[in-house]
């Protein structure tokens, strides 16, 4: 494997994490004007178009075999369809910071899915990491003397996105050796847009057509498309290829911190000491669970899809 400039590698992975972090904030900005189905539908449609052009230009587009189409249909149903249904509607009830903390627990559950579906080993360290991270999530959503400060419905919807992402990794394991990542993401985005189309047409088309053009909201959707769904994926894939899955995946743990900072700056979200401690505990659990992973889960790591 060709040796890469370390600065170039770390720049790529950090840019990917920044883009993923900002996606929670940009969604909140777009959601002020447009509904979640509108945001996701146009984001997927535009991203698929960009990825298609990029894949054709780089000659990296792989046409799936006939036997793989059923897996691609199921893959797109898990993510982006179910994933974005949970995440997008969940973000209507909870803050971007809380959402990012919950979504950041995805890498913890990948080994559990590997064990259940592919009989891959799972360590005690991973189980302890899950418990530590859930303690951190509790600190973020529960305030002593007040109770749960985040909407239970919003939290449940975010965790539905987490488990949709885990189901995605199980299906992805079936075709990851026959198609490259760029082609898989293109097809899942394109198919996902088709899945969302009838729901958008029934529930939000009239609202979208009746809503005056909002430049700020449309720019947020464009940023989600270009940076979160396209460039972030390219940066992350490049990093995984040259740094390895485990080392690259460690950087996913900084997403809640970046999101909390961006939400505080851009959205004026409240960042209390308890929430900050909760974020640190979540990240601590994630690091604890992943520090000594040695090929315990050989399947593809879940990509932080935003």
Order of helices and strands: HHHHHHEEHHHHHHH
Low-confidence stretches: 293-300
What does the overall shape look like? globular
- The termini sit apart by 29 Å
Mean pLDDT: 83
Placed side by side, the strands forming the largest sheet appear as: 1-2
The helix-and-strand class reads mainly alpha
Number of strand segments: 2
For the biggest sheet, the summary is: 2 strands, antiparallel
Number of helices: 13
In what range is the share of β-strand residues? under 5%
Tally the structural domains: 1
Whole-angstrom Rg: 19 Å
Helix fraction, binned, reads: over 70%
Characterization of this structure:
- The protein has 306 residues and is an all-alpha fold.
- The protein has one domain.
- Helices cover 75% and strands 1% of the residues.
- It has 13 helices and two strands.
- A two-stranded antiparallel sheet has the order 1-2.
- A hairpin with a 3-residue loop joins strand 1 and strand 2.
- About 3% of the residues have low confidence.
Topology:
Elements: H1 6-31, H2 36-58, H3 69-90, H4 96-103, H5 106-118, H6 124-141, E1 142-143, E2 147-148, H7 152-175, H8 181-203, H9 205-210, H10 215-243, H11 245-250, H12 255-267, H13 273-290
Antiparallel strand pairs: 1-2
Helix pairs in contact: 1-4, 1-10, 1-12, 2-3, 2-8, 2-10, 3-7, 3-8, 4-7, 4-12, 5-7, 6-13
